Amino acid sequence: MLSPLFALLLAGVPQAASTPAAAPAPAPTRVAIETTAGRIVIELARAQAPITTANFLRYVDGKRLNGTNFYRSVKVAPGFGFVQFGIRNEPKRILPPIKHEPTTQTGLKHLDGTISIARLAPGSARGDFTIMVGDQPSLDADPTKPGDNLGYAAFGQVVEGKEVIARILDTATDPNAGPFKGEMLAKPVQITSAARMK
């Protein structure tokens, strides 16, 4: 039994407020891209790059990527470069451009397997995307550089199917086709479907 003096002292001590339990982290959003070369699964960094991931999901949910292609392979060295896919400004698929989210803002990096959005000027990105093969810090924003130093907007990571990306990187290109001579795939790899995973 507590003495009256000890009980009085306890009564004067502020009690720690009970803190509510932290809400569980939301389940990661993953997108499965089925291609004629195999399956690729991408986990989106929605918390870090909300604008770019929302844009990608609009293309996915609207089935705007279904029937498009991986059409470009930029192979700088064996096992190093990037591949590109998307709508290629097809009028029936295109959505408005989005605000640029540089890596200095999101904290993301262009590492092996990172998905990023293609652009011309900052704020011009729409529905074409690149996937890195090998780490490519030169694509990150770098405020110390002159001119347009905002880099590209990374927004997720391949978590399944890196071997598919490697195969696409090694696909033969046409030396004369398209705006990027020597980088356009002679036989583009079709995307049969792109959908959120349950």
From TrEMBL:
What is this enzyme's EC? 5.2.1.8
Tell me where the signal peptide lies: 1-16
Instruction: Give the keywords, sorted.
Output: Isomerase, Rotamase, Signal
Listed Gene3D superfamilies: Cyclophilin-like
Mention one GO molecular function: peptidyl-prolyl cis-trans isomerase activity
The record, for InterPro entries, names: Cyclophilin-like_dom_sf (IPR029000), Cyclophilin-type_PPIase_dom (IPR002130), E_coli_cyclophilin_A-like (IPR044665)
One Pfam family in the UniProt entry: Pro_isomerase
Q: Where is the PPIase cyclophilin-type domain?
A: 34-196
UniProt name for this protein: peptidylprolyl isomerase
Q: Which organism is it from?
A: Sphingomonas carotinifaciens
